[in-house]
Specification:
With about 240 residues, this protein is an alpha+beta fold. It has one domain: Class II aldolase/adducin N-terminal domain (L-fuculose-1-phosphate Aldolase). The chain has 7 helices and 8 strands, in the order αββββαβααβαββαα. The protein has helices spanning about 5-45, 100-110, 125-130, 140-145, 160-165, 190-215, 220-240, and strands spanning about 55-60, 65, 80-85, 90, 115-120, 150-155, 175-180, 185-190. It has an 8-stranded mixed β-sheet with strand order 4-3-2-1-5-8-7-6, with helices on both faces. A hairpin with a 3-residue loop joins strand 7 and strand 8. Helix 2 runs parallel beside helix 5 (about 160-165) and helix 3 (about 125-130) packs across helix 6. The radius of gyration is 21 Å and the shape is globular.
């Protein structure tokens, strides 16, 4: 190939490469806006009091976009988000990385299908976690089909690798995990999916608490439970497709 031919070929491909860069930048801008929006929703619902809670999304195989540490989720702006590598090292951003980033990275590492992770402290679900109780009572058909039983991970010191390690036994079969004496982590195909699982878990915790107080819960079992569990397998397969 002559030098002139090589130049012509490079010029022909330049618009496509430039377009790809523009699309990547546009996608990151949109994800920053989404993180800001869902952070505010989480705060307004009372799931992230003070500066607690954190959210993240996968930009690509080498970068995670996440909320920073020490910030009210209500006050966050798109520019406040930080970008980290798969080891949690800060790649870009003016704020500090949350000490709980390891929890998010453990989920991404264990589940290649996951694109977003949400960690929060919803009051009722956290109360169950603080009492050493999983949300695994077969009460609601909708929850069994969508989330199944919500397990309780062993207690681990916040901000350490212990948290990620405590999640590993449950990652493949669950999309929501209670953290003993800590809170809740949910994850999914995007931020909306992960956030809805957070809402669903807290709602189920409220139902469980009310049923316990009423004192006469009617648990699903037998053929009804078997059919719902089969429906869950189909539901998860469709969601991951």
């Amino acid at each position: 190939m002559t030098s002139q031919s090589a130049i012509t070929l490079m010029e022909a491909h330049a618009p496509a490469r430039q377009g790809s860069v523009v699309n990547i930048e546009r996608s990151e801008r949109e994800l920053r806006r989404q993180l800001t929006r869902f952070s505010k929703w989480m705060y307004r619902l009372g799931f992230a009091p003070g500066t607690s809670g954190n959210l993240s999304v996968r930009l690509d195989d080498e970068r995670i976009l996440a909320t920073p540490t020490g910030c009210s989720k209500y006050l966050l702006r798109p520019v406040d988000m930080v970008v980290v590598d798969p080891n949690g090292k800060l790649l870009s951003g003016t704020r500090n990385v949350t000490s709980e980033i390891g929890m998010h990275l453990a989920v991404y590492k264990g589940r290649s299908d996951v694109q977003a992770v949400v960690h929060a402290h919803p009051a009722i679900a956290t109360a169950f976690a603080s009492c050493g109780l999983a949300l695994d009572t077969p009460l609601c058909a909708e929850l069994i089909m969508t989330l199944g039983a919500i397990p309780l991970a062993a207690y681990a010191t916040t901000g350490t690798d212990e948290v990620g390690a405590s999640l590993k036994p449950f990652l493949l079969d669950h999309d929501a995990i209670l953290l003993a004496n800590h809170g809740l982590v949910t994850f999914g195909k995007d931020l909306l999916d992960a956030f809805m699982k957070l809402e669903t878990t807290e709602h189920f915790a409220q139902v469980c608490l009310a049923a316990h107080e009423l004192g006469s819960p009617k648990l699903l079992d037998g053929d009804a439970l078997k059919k719902l569990q089969q429906a869950r397998l189909r539901y998860r397969a469709n969601c991951r497709a």
